[in-house]
């Protein structure tokens, strides 16, 4: 019953995906080169986990930081 929200990449649907900076089909080790993370339709910088493009939310520091 969630086909309106998930199941394909379309405007307005939620998406969880990774954007890589290198092609993993050329070298499987490139699958570690994560540039952006999309979680629940929000885009984050993989290095900082601060939201980019879709908002301006900044990651809160971990307790040890």
Strand content: 15-25%
Straight-line distance between termini: 41 Å
Name the overall outline.
flat
Largest sheet: 3 strands, antiparallel
Number of domains: 1
Summarize model confidence as the mean pLDDT.
89
Assembly annotation: single chain
The succession of helices and strands, N to C, reads EEE
Low-confidence stretches: none
Number of helices: 0
How many E-type strands?
A: 3
Helix content: under 10%
Question: How large is the radius of gyration?
Answer: 14 Å
Strand order of the largest sheet: 1-2-3
Structural class category: mainly beta
Question: Which key terms come to mind for this protein?
Answer:
0% helix; mainly beta; 3-stranded antiparallel sheet; 3 strands; 65 residues
What does this structure look like?
There is one protein chain. With 65 residues, this protein is mainly β. The chain has one domain (1-60). The chain has strands spanning 17-20, 34-39, 42-45. Strands 1-2-3 form a three-stranded antiparallel β-sheet, with no helix packed on it. A hairpin with a 2-residue loop joins strand 2 (34-39) and strand 3. The protein is flat, with a radius of gyration of 14 Å.
